[in-house]
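Action item from last week, closing it out:
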Amino acid sequence: MTTPAATSAGANGAATWRSQAGSILFAGLGAFVALALVGLLAQETSAPWILGSFGATCVLLFGFPASPFSQPRNIIGGHVLTSLTGLLCLHLFGPGYLPMAIAAACALMLMMLTRTVHPPAGSNPVIIFAAQPGWSFLVLPTMIGAVSLVVIGWLYWAVLRRGAWPRR
């Protein structure tokens, strides 16, 4: 996607810029809606629905919805797989920078092996080693949060783009 500044001048350039500006606004609105809803759920339930990597997930989900990395299988599978890997390494090897690096490397390889690569999820093992949560972290915020973002994304794109996501 080119930036509005990179488009050509003239009437056609102005139309292109308006189109891109609209896409940028829709992407920002989508990220806002998704993170606000998940944040509201966290506030109302006093449960940790938010994961740091979810902000980057929204960049892909709403800014680049056609990307292979933005598809439901990748979002949910990538987040769950990397959090599981991080938790396993934390509990098997204990805290530390080497076990964290092992967890992140294994998570990357497993996402590639299972074709569930979702770049934002690559930070989940690092988050896990920083926070040192229990096993429940795999369910909430990881799985329930990722599924929530996918559902919100599906509803958002169904309303705005009439079924333009997920990519078929």
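Closing note: Residues 10-45 form the longest helix (36 residues).
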